[in-house]
Amino acid sequence: MKTKTLNLKAKQKKKATRKSSTQGLLLKDMIESLEFDHVNNNITSENFPEQEIRGEVKIFHFDRFISSEDVIKEMKQEGYEPANLYELLEYAKIGIVRIC
Fold this sequence. Notes:
Elements: E1 2-6, H1 27-34, E2 57-61, H2 68-77, H3 85-99
Antiparallel strand pairs: 1-2
Helix pairs in contact: 1-3
């Protein structure tokens, strides 16, 4: 398994939180700021209540076919959990800032 870690303070298992560049913005505003080509109409604050941005991001890559359930098991063994929507949007924002 190959992994890539972005140093964003602390592992998620420690339940650390950090300041987000999108913190305080409404979900609608976060999505609009990223200028996606298309956004499903079901992605709303009602369907995705606000969640904290947790610590360190680690990207997992497996050199084999693996089920979602097995991915989550392997992530938990290393102290990680799948990202929530707000963390994914934050990651997209960071990625866009690095490219620009």
